[in-house]
Write a structure and sequence with these properties.
single chain; four-stranded mixed β-sheet
Length: about 550
Amino acid sequence: MGFKSDIEIAQECKKQKITEIAKVAGVPEEYLEQYGNYKAKVDYRLLKDLKDKKDGKLILVTAITPTPAGEGKTTTSVGLTDGLRKIGKNAIVALREPSLGPVFGVKGGAAGGGYAQVVPMEDINLHFTGDFHAIGAANNLLAAMLDNHIQQGNQLGIDVKQITWKRAVDMNDRQLRHIINGLGGKMQGVPREDGFEITVASEVMAILCLASDIKDLKERLARIIVGYTYDGKPVTAHDLKAEGAMAALLKDALKPNLVQTLEGTPAFIHGGPFANIAHGCNSITATKMAMKLADYAVTEAGFAADLGAEKFVDIKCRMAGINPSAVVIVATVRALKYHGGVAKADLNNENLDALSKGMPNLLQHVQNVKEVFGVPCVVAINAFPTDTKAELDLVEAECKKLGVNVALSEVWAKGGEGGKALAEEVVRLCEQPNNFSFTYELDQPIEEKIRTIAKRVYHAKHLLMLPAAKKKAAEIEALGFGKLPICMAKTQYSFSDDPTLLGAPQDFTVQVSNVKVCAGAGFIVAYTGDIMTMPGLPKVPAAEKIDVDENGVISGLF
């Protein structure tokens, strides 16, 4: 049997009509808004009508620090949910929507892989149900209204050098990071410096994912700070009378999307903030819907546990009033060897010495989940054919020392059947004592909250707040936003803010260059290292290999 690509596997799948998947999920037809045969939106009114129903157990899937070797969080999340159904449990998965930036860049799509995928894979990875377009349009409507206000006399006295709101596009386009616009004469706008963020970094994306209903959405949009007046007062979307029109653009995007796995398991896919520059979790609405409809709701948080899981705990769980019953930490033997200093080209060879050197990365994530977040966890080793028994035994032995079991996850090759062992362990963990706790207290000063994350989660020795960041933190506190949670903007490739420091680095300093209040989303972003909110394309973008034939069949997506 020849090797099949993810897209070939997905295209061979005999999908069920979305109306049948809705029946499996327990979604009554009156709440279903179909987008063709295999996708639907679910009206958020369903959550209100299910408010008295007991919540199912919530399982968070996170991972070790990512490497070019790949980890497989989404694949594991999908396969685990299929595995739970294979052992007779009522389970639903709730994931994020992929951004077009990575789809056409390096990372590819985010619909799982092998025989643990969500379908229709092409739709999910491309335009899906238009949610990201709606978010970009709402973001850019606010930008247009802001610049129009300045052009039409600037009644609010907005200082064009203190505008914090950027435009957004869902593409990796480094050319747009720093631009000058409004050129060409008096009628073409007021010339000023500006820039674009990728849509997934927009505060509108965060708001959509954290809002509980239309009313909450509108109130959050109204609170967005777009800039400051000449005398330092914040200017909001409400001051520009923008929130109503923005909410109108987002009214359908607020509804979670229902699709299916290759095995017909219901899957909610909704929202998609990146975890290195945003809060990295799917929408609260979709997660809560999965918890109301299923006994086990599986969700993931972006990148490693120092980013996605920390924000899931300290931002999402706080705002939603939910907490996980168990955490799955995904690792691969190949990625651990990479953390131990092996070049990507040599990862297929057995190397117990490098594996031992890379293990501290996994163990530190395990320790954080158990001791900082207080949740029972299991390590899921995403299996590769090149893994040797000696390597797998070494991982298991090291994890056992911390009182954590290891489950071999073979979901890429075998689907739900390969996730049964992991599913059994997750069900066991869900009944274990749970000492769920947050990393920091909200009433700590901003700098102290950032320091607590850096020391407790990243294991940094020092925190250096640059003068500009200290000044901004003081201003944010003076404006009354000091008690908001922190959203760290940090490289995903290291516990530190330096992407070259692999494994579990010691004696490093986290440097914070700036802080910004996202009053609508309800958090403060702290920018560390060289982090950027607009990625660029690589030398050979994935887009070069994507094509579509005369029958409309897409190839090259992965």
